Amino acid sequence: MTLCDWHIHTRRSPCGHQEATYADVAARARALGIRCFGFTDHLHCHVNLPQLRLAREEFDALPEGTGAHFGLEVSCLRVWDIEQNEAAGDQAHVYGLWEGGPVDSALTIYWSKEVEALRPEYVIGGAHWPLGVPLERDAVIRSYHRQNMYLAQHPRVTVVAHPWWWQGAWQAEDGTYPDLPWLGDFGVVPASMHEEFATALCENGKYMELNASAIFLNPHYPPRFVSQYLEYAAFMKSMGVRFALGSDSHERVYEPLVEKMMEVLATLGLTEADLWQGPATAPEPQRLPRGL
Fold this sequence. Notes:
This protein has nine helices and nine strands. With about 290 residues, it is an alpha/beta fold. The strands form two sheets. The chain has a seven-stranded parallel sheet with strand order 1-2-3-6-7-8-9. Helix 5 (about 135-155) runs parallel beside helix 6.
């Protein structure tokens, strides 16, 4: 099976390693046998645009034949967050996220003519934080499901990144996440949410990401969560969902995380027919409905 990696960060992401250049990562990926891969530095809000313009310049300077593609990773936010951030001027936050605000504010991703000018070949979109809800397990679950559903239906999004990844509250002193919000028992997420999400992915021609560093090889997550997530992935596959592989690399030196993850995923019996093969197979972007 041809290994692809559609989720790679560089120094142009606010959380990327500052020594990870496009040229170095591309050379390392090719040396490790990754023939098709994509750079997906973060686009949270307008604050990220200067770095992403530099990212595009780095990408355009790569030699032909590297197998690289230029993508973006967007974050689900509220319209209220975007409005607050744009009104903040010099105090605008690099992640575009603001505390408080209305729980029921319409969801969005940041998009503009400046983003179009970057010429992204594909977009992965993720739920990276609860939006406006109290830090209570059920509220967080509902917020993440709402975001996953939004991204699965958004015409600009190709791949929904790392569903049910968590980082933030409820971290133990040793850096692990032993329990909340769903890491101790993934079964607290209602099966009906998985069914609804799977249906939305299939109906809209989207892919669900199988993420190495954020999910399957995450040293901060308990082993039970990984085994339960494997069951979840098997269920999604049975529903007809197709997947995209991603390392979610943020490191200085690109490592073969996708290959290591495939060893974990062996029980799923994945074939190339189950996996996204790259931007050439992505649906054409649709006209944005009002409110998206």
